[in-house]
């Protein structure tokens, strides 16, 4: 069977097949193989899948086959974030190129007036729930012709508090629609949603969330005040160690402030890093992501929300500067690399403030193998904070840390037994006159602001750090950014 026959066998229509061919897809992904025939057969589907699994084509093939130009909005795809809305819309535009469908992304943070005009011609709308409700309240969108409703990354929508908004939207869609739910995990709440709003859904899951065989995960123990220095050392050394496997690097932080801090100080230390988080305006995020996508930016410092759902190819290294507070976020982070058969490395820098999170990640992901690496010798460097324009660097510049000192000082060992996780609107191929080619690349981003999110949430405090603050010892002992915390920490 040749490559295209494998896609044809699934029942995908000519229009979409031509794009698949232009994109040089070798074979259907597992989620496509399992869901496309069911979707084309008119079934409601609940699918366990993640970003990067090819899920957009999985639901897109069915929608594009059945949606006609000029019949109004017939396909509605709900996503948790602006980035994902933009990304999914961009893919849907590409896949529907030969059918000439109008795909319109709808999300907050940008002018609603322009969206209103575009929505009036749309066949497929890819929307975040908040902004869609806005349109519904203004009667600027007609959902009476919707025959396909997709909930993409449904678990994330629930996590972000969109459950009630989604329910309101669903009840305004025609009852005889086909409903497809894609989610990394299917919780009890999602199961009850599917029972209530879906018709005898077929459940599908794909085997592996992370291709563990292609991903090498390690952790280093370090002192709080050596964390940044170790990051710089590792970034510079990993780069020279394995130049052919040094593509794009993502450095994850838990707060916007830490992300800003890390990016700024990396630049001061000759690492060309760029930052992306939810506190930046849309156009800035778009520019950064575009640079990362086309390879002019090599190190992207980011928060979970900003990075969520982005399909960026060629990420070779993931650094967790802050260990993810949520075990699921850890899996999403490492899922940015080791994609499409390529290998990847996830590097965790663990200091005392990460202990609880690290134990939690290991407890909830017992299948992950995170190996301990000896902390190498590295040079201590000064870091700079914005607020008070002071430098913190411990005892002098250029001091060399001894190997594994952090681990000894921590007094805790983290073996596996210890524990127990914005936007570049791509123009439609038609609008810029280009045909689909093999190298469609996306560069999208930005998240819908979550109405229920507390904006003042800071990094989790350990009892120890809290006591230190109480004793007024803050900043005397450490040079890590959380020691300089203030109430304006934003979790992204
Ligand atoms: P998604 O999970 O839908 O965001 O897709 C992730 C990436 O995989 C996108 O860049 C798609 O264009 C690409 N993709 C989708 N299906 C396939 C396939 N069968 N073979 C190779 N790449 C694919």
What does this 3D model show about the protein?
The longest helix is centred in the middle third of the chain and has 15 residues, at 227-241. 49% of the residues are buried. Helix content is 35%, strand content 15%. The chain has 492 residues and is of the alpha/beta class. Residues 387-399 and 402-491 have low confidence and may be disordered. The protein has two domains: 3-205, Rossmann fold (3-Layer(aba) Sandwich), CATH 3.40.50.300; 212-476, 3-Layer(aba) Sandwich (Rossmann fold), CATH 3.40.50. Strand 10, helix 13 (282-293) and strand 11 form a beta-alpha-beta unit. The strands form four sheets. It has a seven-stranded parallel sheet, with helices on both faces. Strands 10-11-9-12-13-8-14 form a seven-stranded parallel sheet, sandwiched between helices. The structure holds adenosine monophosphate (AMP). Adenosine monophosphate binds at residues 25-26, 28-29, 32, 51-57, 311.
- The name CATH uses for the topology of the largest domain is Rossmann fold
Bound molecules: adenosine monophosphate
Q: Helicity range of the residues? A: 25-40%
Total E-strand runs: 18
Low-confidence blocks of residues = 387-399, 402-491
Biggest sheet: strands side by side, in what order?
Answer: 3-4-2-5-6-1-7
Number of helical segments? 18
* CATH top level assignment of the largest domain: Alpha Beta
Number of domains: 2
The overall average pLDDT, rounded, is: 77
The class by helix and strand makeup works out as alpha/beta
């Amino acid at each position: 069977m040749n490559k295209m026959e494998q896609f044809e066998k699934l029942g995908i229509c000519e229009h979409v097949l031509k794009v698949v061919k232009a994109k040089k897809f070798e074979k259907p992904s597992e989620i496509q193989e399992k869901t496309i025939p069911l979707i084309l057969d008119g079934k409601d589907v609940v699918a366990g899948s993640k970003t990067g699994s090819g899920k957009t084509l999985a639901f897109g093939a069915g929608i594009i086959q059945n949606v006609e130009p000029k019949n109004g909005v017939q396909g509605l795809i709900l996503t948790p974030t602006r980035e994902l809305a933009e990304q999914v819309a961009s893919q849907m535009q590409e896949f529907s190129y030969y059918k000439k469908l109008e795909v319109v992304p709808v999300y907050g943070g940008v002018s609603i007036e322009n969206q209103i005009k575009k929505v009036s011609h749309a066949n497929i709308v890819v929307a975040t729930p908040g902004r869609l409700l806005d349109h519904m309240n203004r009667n600027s969108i007609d959902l009476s012709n919707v025959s396909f409703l997709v909930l993409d990354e449904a678990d994330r929508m629930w996590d972000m508090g969109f459950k009630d908004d989604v329910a309101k939207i669903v009840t305004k869609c025609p009852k005889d629609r086909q409903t497809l739910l894609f989610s990394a995990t299917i919780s009890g709440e999602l199961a009850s949603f599917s029972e209530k709003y879906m018709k005898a859904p077929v459940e599908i899951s794909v085997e592996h969330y992370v291709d563990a065989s292609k991903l090498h995960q390690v952790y280093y123990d370090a002192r709080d005040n050596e964390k940044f220095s170790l990051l710089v050392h590792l970034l510079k050394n990993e780069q020279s160690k394995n130049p052919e496997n040094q593509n794009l690097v993502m450095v994850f932080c838990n707060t916007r402030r830490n992300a800003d801090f890390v990016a700024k100080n990396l630049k001061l230390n000759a690492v060309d890093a760029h930052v992306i988080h939810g506190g930046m305006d849309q156009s800035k995020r778009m520019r950064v992501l575009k640079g990362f996508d086309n390879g002019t930016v090599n190190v992207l410092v980011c928060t979970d929300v900003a990075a969520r759902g982005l399909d960026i190819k060629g990420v070779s290294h993931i650094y967790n500067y802050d260990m993810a507070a949520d075990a699921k976020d850890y899996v999403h982070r490492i899922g940015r690399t080791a994609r499409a058969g390529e290998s990847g490395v996830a590097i965790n820098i663990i200091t005392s403030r990460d202990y609880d999170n690290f134990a939690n990640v290991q407890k909830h992901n017992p299948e992950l193998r995170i190996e301990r690496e000896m902390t190498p010798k590295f040079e201590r460097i000064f870091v700079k904070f914005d607020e008070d324009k002071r430098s913190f660097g411990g005892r002098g510049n250029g001091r060399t840390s001894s190997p594994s000192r952090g681990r000894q000082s921590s007094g805790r060992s983290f073996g596996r037994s210890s524990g127990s996780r914005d936007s570049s609107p791509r123009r439609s191929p038609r609008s810029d006159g280009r045909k689909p080619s093999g190298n469609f690349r996306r560069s999208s981003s930005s998240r819908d602001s979550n109405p229920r999110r507390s904006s003042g949430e800071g990094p989790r405090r350990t009892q120890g750090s809290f006591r230190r603050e109480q004793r007024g010892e803050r900043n005397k002992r450490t040079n890590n950014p959380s020691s300089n915390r203030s109430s304006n920490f934003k979790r992204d």
